[in-house]
Amino acid sequence: MNETTPSLEQLLQEVLAEHKVSTSCNPIGQLTVTVPVQHWQSVALKLRDDERFAFAQLIDLCGVDYLGYGNDEWETEQATSEGYSRGVDALGPGRFDWAHRPEAAEVENRFAVVVQLLSLQHNRRLRLRCFPPLQPMPLLPSLVEVWNSANWYEREAFDLFGIVFEGHPDLRRILTDYGFVGHPFRKDFPLIGNVTVRYDEEQRRVVYDTVEIEPRVTVPRVVRRDSRYVQPDRSSSGNQEQEA
Q: Which tops the pLDDT comparison, 189 or 186?
């Protein structure tokens, strides 16, 4: 690539300066653009229609819940990398009774919507992220009119995280039942049930009993800080992009 050709990150910062975006790059070189809510749609249109970007395809959209992010109950720092048989230190997200569920009132930027874009013209990928405000509910403009493929992805994020996409043509549950209460991928959603529902042959009706099975401890994703995730020195790395 010509040395005078700006990198994608530089180009994004220049073109989208008025939209007040911020950029970051993770250790594996994935570029992320964080966009304010009020510029979510306008930035999406710019990335799609500007020939310098030409991100014509939305390949994924998902919700993220940062409640408890970086906090884990597993002995990961002093333990070996093989297995999790040592168990957990204490109760964590999901393992609680509903009366003592975690409160997230003080968590800033708890929910995020993450979009993965692809430019076939320039052979580039880009990650967009936006933090919708929490009150009265996580609310973000829909991207269906920009990329039609966002339709079912936004329905999934609404169903599992409770993120509302304003302007979506058919925003309803897609994985759980229409009468389902709550959003299963929120970290304050209980993983342990309080009652067991079964059909009683003698009474010929559905009855509710106490839970008899032991709680199942799942293996969480843990934020590690070892040598595999050390931030690279980007100042001397040079321009790593390749022309299509």
A: 186
